[in-house]
């Protein structure tokens, strides 16, 4: 794998991955899509039917397989936070954290909450606090990335260009 994107749910990892791969003329991989292929159902259904522990095991196996491929990878929001996944990501790829202001993450998550099983049972009123705590818990993993993109106010093109510049600069020094 060349580049892996990490960040909270609804941070735009899948969108940026596709655009970045296109710019690099490289394949793109979405870990959730790969998990769905192996698991036989989409990630939301796997989480709801089998539970988070079973999902995280499948996610780990799929991550290890997918990292052997060449291209750009969109990880799941929790992927870097389980097992030694962040260590593996850093060893096998250039890792970029897509960081957004909390307000933006809450707005995006709210509009996509039906497809986010981790929000099941969380009231709309409690969602901001839930997301803030989640991001707080996950941030130490995300911040280990090779590069952090502060995405607020940037277009997909701007974010992609920044990642390519930093990645090329990094790869020239290794």
From TrEMBL:
Cofactor info, note text: Binds 1 Mg(2+) ion per subunit.
Protein name according to UniProt: Shikimate kinase
Keywords: Amino-acid biosynthesis, Aromatic amino acid biosynthesis, ATP-binding, Cytoplasm, Kinase, Magnesium, Metal-binding, Nucleotide-binding, Transferase
Organism encoding this protein: Phaeocystidibacter luteus
Entry's Gene Ontology cellular component terms: cytosol
Residues that coordinate or bind ATP: 10-15, 116
GO BP terms in the entry: amino acid biosynthetic process; aromatic amino acid family biosynthetic process; chorismate biosynthetic process
Residues annotated as binding substrate: 32, 56, 77, 138
Cofactor dependence: Mg(2+)
Binding site for Mg(2+): 14
GO MF term list: ATP binding; magnesium ion binding; shikimate kinase activity
Function summary: Catalyzes the specific phosphorylation of the 3-hydroxyl group of shikimic acid using ATP as a cosubstrate.
Localization, UniProt: Cytoplasm
One matching Pfam family: SKI
Gene responsible for this protein: aroK
The EC number(s) this enzyme carries: 2.7.1.71
Top-rank lineage group of the source organism: Bacteria
This protein's pathway: Metabolic intermediate biosynthesis; chorismate biosynthesis; chorismate from D-erythrose 4-phosphate and phosphoenolpyruvate: step 5/7
Gene3D superfamilies associated with the record: P-loop containing nucleotide triphosphate hydrolases
């Amino acid at each position: 794998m060349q580049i892996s994107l990490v960040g909270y749910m609804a941070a735009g990892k899948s969108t940026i991955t596709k655009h970045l791969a296109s710019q690099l003329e490289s394949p793109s991989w979405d870990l959730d899509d790969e998990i769905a292929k192996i698991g036989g159902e989409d990630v939301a259904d796997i989480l709801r039917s089998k539970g988070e522990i079973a999902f995280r095991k499948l996610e780990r196996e799929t991550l290890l397989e997918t990292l052997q491929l060449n291209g750009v990878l969109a990880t799941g929001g929790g992927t870097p936070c389980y097992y030694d996944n962040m260590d593996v990501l850093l060893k096998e790829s250039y890792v970029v954290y897509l960081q957004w202001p909390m307000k933006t993450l809450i707005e995006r998550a709210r509009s996509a909450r039906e497809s986010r099983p981790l929000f099941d049972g969380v009231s709309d009123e409690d969602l901001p606090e839930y997301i803030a705590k989640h991001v707080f818990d996950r941030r130490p993993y995300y911040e280990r990335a090779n590069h952090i993109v502060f995405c607020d106010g940037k277009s997909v093109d701007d974010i992609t260009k920044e990642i390519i510049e930093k990645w090329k600069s990094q790869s020239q020094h290794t």
